[in-house]
Write a structure and sequence with these properties.
This protein is α+β, with helices and mostly antiparallel strands. The chain has a domain of 50 residues. It has two helices and two strands. The protein has a two-stranded antiparallel ribbon with strand order 1-2. β1 and β2 form a beta hairpin. The longest helix has 17 residues. The chain is elongated, with a radius of gyration of 25 Å.
């Protein structure tokens, strides 16, 4: 399980059809007791050959001259925090705003508001 606990079963129900969004999928089911959930859909990694391989990643195949012959593996997942340190008392560049048609300006305004609402951007604190 994702938390590191192991759950075992010796029952496999083969050849079941799961339909999602009118798309049928042939799957095998393994019944297990898992809290209050009626159904849990998961991919079981049987062995190392089921793991994502570097040579199957599209960008690695498209640009082979950029990547080493023997890749050591994917980098570890990291939390990235960064900031841009502003120069004290720096003045903004004096430029007129980019001109857009009213319909495009409205679309830009809507997209900026959506990004601000989601917390991806915030108003500038620079002068």
């Amino acid at each position: 399980m994702a938390d590191g606990n192991l759950i075992s079963t010796n029952t496999v129900i083969q050849g079941c059809t799961l339909t999602l969004l009118n798309q049928p999928f042939e799957i095998n089911l393994m019944p297990i007791k898992l809290g209050s959930f009626d159904v849990v859909i998961a991919q079981v990694m049987k062995n190392k050959s089921d793991e994502k391989r570097l040579e199957n990643i599209l960008v690695v195949r498209e640009y082979p001259d950029v990547f080493q012959e023997e890749l050591r593996g994917l980098p570890p997942v990291r939390q990235v925090e960064f900031q841009i340190d502003l120069t004290p008392r720096a003045a903004p560049v004096a430029r007129a705003p980019y001109r857009l048609a009213p319909s495009r300006m409205q679309e830009l305004s809507n997209q900026l508001q959506e990004l601000a609402d989601r917390g991806f951007i915030r108003p500038s604190t620079s002068p």
